[in-house]
Amino acid sequence: MAALAGKRIGLLTARASRTNGGVFEAVVRQVDLLKTLDAQPVVVAAEDDSHAADAWRLAGAEIRLAQIHGPKHPGFAPRLTPVLLDAGLDLVHLHGIWSYASRAATRWSKATNGPLVISPLGMCDAWMIERNRWKKNLARLAWEKSAWSNAMAFHALTPAEAGDIGRECGAQLIGVIPSCASPPSQPRQTMPPPMVLYLGTIHEKKNLVALMEGWLAALPDLPPDASLVVAGWGDEEGVTALERFLEPMGPSIEFVSAAFASQKAALLELARFLVLPSSSEGLPISILDGWSAGIPAAISPACNLPEGYANGAALKCGPDRESIKTALIEALRIEEPEWLSMSRAAQALASGTFGKEHIAGQWRRIYEDCLGVLSPAQLERQISGKIPQ
User: Keywords in UniProt for this one (predicted)?
Assistant: First the structure.
């Protein structure tokens, strides 16, 4: 780890707040990992209204912001490049694509000849590519192709995403490293009450309407005290629309807005199952944190966590109402001995495959390889073990 001691690693992203959804969660985790590796994380982003409320989650990182001019998407912030250049960075790690941050990353790389690593974080998924494709085509021509050609390496969360990145970005050097889970809590001794928890952003790809419709359809076959809690955050318009939709749904569904730190821990303590019927994901941190807390999950294949099915920590749940209904009924019919077995399997994954120490070691090797004086051929040999065949 000494090789990274004192190195200034720039974590560049569109916005350093909850408005950046799962990308912000990835940045929060990367700050923590970099501190573990004795490096200095420097978060660089365009400023937005939610940053002040969320800055505490980046404790230990330097934070440098640039003002947005015009609409929040794609986040035109012309001062991003000077901010990057003034930060004295040894490496820039871009989190997320399709925003103006990609152009700033390219300019920094060209000006300094410094290494650029790109984590698309699920944004090359076919579902995401089709959404507002014309905007992505403009971004591709305006700045993304240049950023991709200047990147020393790409990071994929899963082998499936590595294929997406290769297809969309033409990338060759792709290291596959999953997100890391929180440290596991004490093993569960009893099964919680029949509360199912959704924890994440309010976004159409999460299929929240189908989730709530599936819940209501399943309700006659669920325990009488069963409840669904939706703990989510997003733009004001999306949250308002969700609240209106929830009004006639009845008392078995509750919306509790954003949940972090102690509020999140309290919800995880009470939940029997997590549910995430997404159409598109990178690798959902909310499920990993649920596994750390010993909570099994009902998740769609788009969550890219087949380990959950294979190891008995998750049930398969499609993105449509009927599939969600079936999964919810199955989840809440599980008896305590089987549930406790699933809980132990979930924590084993959180401490093993997705454990912090294991993931930090993988990132140490990637960063050290990129910071070394290596030719492209040497770098390819160094990280070839992480390139899916």
Answer: Glycosyltransferase, Transferase
Q: Check whether residue 23 and residue 90 sit in a common domain.
A: yes
- Return mean pLDDT, the chain: 89
Distance separating alpha carbons of residues 5 and 198, to the nearest angstrom = 38
Q: Is 298 helix (H, G, I), strand (E, B) or coil?
A: strand
Token duo for residue 293:
């807390």
**According to the model, what pLDDT value does residue 376 have?**
54
User: Considering just the CA atoms, what is the radius of gyration of the chain in Å?
Assistant: 21
Alpha-helical runs (H) found in 159-229? 159-169, 208-218
Share of the chain above pLDDT 90, in %: 69
- Exposed, middle or buried: residue 239 (CB in 10 Å: 0-12, 13-18, 19+)? middle
| Cα 376 off chain centre by | 29
In a shared domain, residues 267 and 374: no
Q: Which residues of the chain have pLDDT under 50?
A: 1, 373, 375, 385-389
Contact 174, 117 (CB under 8 A): no
Burial class, 141, CB count within 10 angstroms (exposed 0-12 / middle 13-18 / buried 19+): exposed
Domain that holds residue 79: 2-180+356-386
- CB-based contact 27:16 (threshold 8 Å): yes
Longest Cα–Cα distance in the chain: 64
- Whole-prediction pTM value? 0.85
Q: Specify whether 30 is located in the same domain as 133.
A: yes
2-12 pLDDT tens trace = 689 999 999 99
DSSP class per residue in 104-164: HHHHHHHHH---EEEE-TTTTSHHHHHTTHHHHHHHIIIIIHHHHHH-SEEEESSHHHHHH
Number of domains in the chain: 2
Is residue 189 domain-resident? no
SS3 content of the chain, % helix, strand, coil (to 5): 50, 15, 35
Answer yes or no: do 244 and 340 share one domain: yes
CATH number of the domain residue 135 falls in: 3.40.50.2000
